């Protein structure tokens, strides 16, 4: 077995593909969070749009949460690195639950507080995902990272199969407002369960001093691999910034039925579940470069049906194509970036700063994506082709991401292997 020491993480194992108990427990917490978000988050943009009839308000809500989430990553880095990362994770989950409870209490008047609500969920997401990504790095190894990401995608897809379908059915059967109240309540309860479960995650030792400008120095250093990785992460964020909320809104606009959106999520998540499971099992580091290229081209090609007249059928074809091939892109991307964080003992000691650098790239990309969405809004009613061209413009960024990452894919791990003893 090939291992190499890594301060703060023990021995790094490059061959073991199994997941230990702490990794499984972390997956369980993530699955609960994914289920709660799938129940309510899928329908939140529709709820805001129905209450305001404003596409711009939905955009500003998302822009706010992305900005605040990225800022929270940077500011909370000192707490996570020098104090208690598990408390950051728990507070993040609790704030997410409080967010949905607040929306429940506000009802339709929530649209008047879209920006403050965006701040609340942004802080919650920032605290949770910062701690989660650091703990994920510590409980996984290069040899089992693809498997963890495969399971994470599989569980997320599983939540996407059942939860939105249930939400859509409840909203339809309860004639709207009461259905939304029910799903927001259920989500709040699930977040509370996730907080309780997180106490079984072991408290992890803190070490080192937080370096506020570490990421900036990486980008200034010539020959540093992060000068390629961060722009690639930005490309990932550009696509996510629009697709995370606009796809569901398009399905609702095409059908005027939350139940149809639930069915859309059921079908696409089922496809994604199978795809994540297969790719998570079969993908090995040396195959990442080819897999990510195929994924990038395929998810871009899947946008083609959106140039047909907008309908549930064309959106479903697009959704199935995206769900089928996105794991080929996202698993190599995520695993390679985290392998890069663990590429040396010095790098591993700065894992919190590197996780924040990764999030800074995602945040920058998401802001660019939402800004593009807000800029084209005035033209959407003038032409049927504005939406598909917007989706193509932001949806093709994975190809650029692959071009930037291609020199790193499959090489980060190999560079760390030591000769067998």
From TrEMBL:
The chain crosses the membrane at residues 21-49, 55-76, 88-107, 113-136, 148-167, 179-201, 229-255, 261-279, 291-310, 316-341, 362-380, 386-409. GO terms for cellular component: plasma membrane. GO terms for molecular function: transmembrane transporter activity. It is found in: Cell membrane. It is a multi-pass membrane protein. Keywords: Membrane, Transmembrane, Transmembrane helix. This is MFS transporter. It comes from Paenibacillus lycopersici. Pfam families: MFS_1. Gene3D superfamilies: MFS general substrate transporter like domains.
């Amino acid at each position: 077995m090939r291992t190499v020491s890594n301060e703060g993480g023990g021995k790094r194992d490059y061959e073991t593909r199994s997941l230990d108990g702490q990794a499984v427990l972390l997956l369980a917490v993530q699955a609960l969070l994914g289920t709660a978000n799938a129940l309510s988050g899928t329908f939140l943009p529709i709820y805001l749009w129905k209450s305001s009839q404003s596409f711009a308000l939905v955009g500003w809500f998302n822009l706010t949460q992305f900005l605040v989430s990225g800022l929270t990553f940077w500011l909370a880095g000192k707490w996570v690195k020098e104090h208690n990362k598990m408390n950051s994770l728990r507070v993040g989950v609790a704030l997410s639950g409080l967010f949905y409870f607040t929306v429940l209490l506000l009802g339709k008047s929530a649209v008047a507080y879209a920006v403050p609500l965006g701040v609340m969920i942004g802080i919650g997401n920032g605290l949770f995902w910062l701690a989660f990504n650091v703990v994920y790095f510590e409980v996984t190894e290069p040899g089992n990272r693809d498997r963890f990401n495969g399971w994470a995608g599989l569980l997320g897809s599983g939540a996407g199969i059942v939860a939105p379908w249930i939400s859509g059915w409840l909203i339809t059967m309860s004639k709207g407002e009461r259905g939304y109240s029910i799903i927001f309540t259920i989500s709040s309860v699930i977040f509370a369960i996730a907080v309780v479960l997180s106490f079984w995650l072991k408290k992890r030792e803190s070490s080192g001093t937080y370096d506020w400008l570490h990421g900036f120095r990486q980008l200034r250093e010539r020959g540093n691999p992060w000068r390629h990785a961060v722009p690639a992460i930005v490309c990932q964020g550009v696509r996510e910034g629009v697709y995370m909320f606009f796809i569901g809104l398009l399905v609702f606009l095409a059908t005027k039925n939350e139940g149809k959106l639930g069915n859309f999520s059921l079908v696409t998540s089922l496809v994604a579940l199978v795809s994540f499971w297969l790719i998570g099992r079969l993908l090995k580091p040396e195959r990442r470069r080819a897999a990510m290229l195929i994924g990038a081209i395929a998810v871009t090609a899947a946008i083609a049906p959106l140039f047909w007249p907008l309908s549930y059928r064309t959106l479903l074809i697009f959704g199935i194509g995206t769900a089928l091939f996105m794991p080929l892109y996202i698993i190599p991307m995520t695993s390679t970036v985290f392998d890069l964080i663990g590429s040396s003992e010095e790098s591993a000691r700065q894992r919190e700063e590197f996780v924040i650098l990764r999030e800074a790239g995602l945040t920058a990309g998401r802001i660019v994506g939402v800004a593009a969405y807000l800029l084209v809004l005035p033209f959407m009613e003038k032409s049927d082709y504005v939406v598909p061209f917007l989706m193509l413009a932001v949806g093709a960024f994975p190809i650029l991401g692959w071009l930037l990452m291609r020199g790193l894919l499959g090489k980060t791990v190999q560079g760390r292997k030591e000769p067998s003893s």
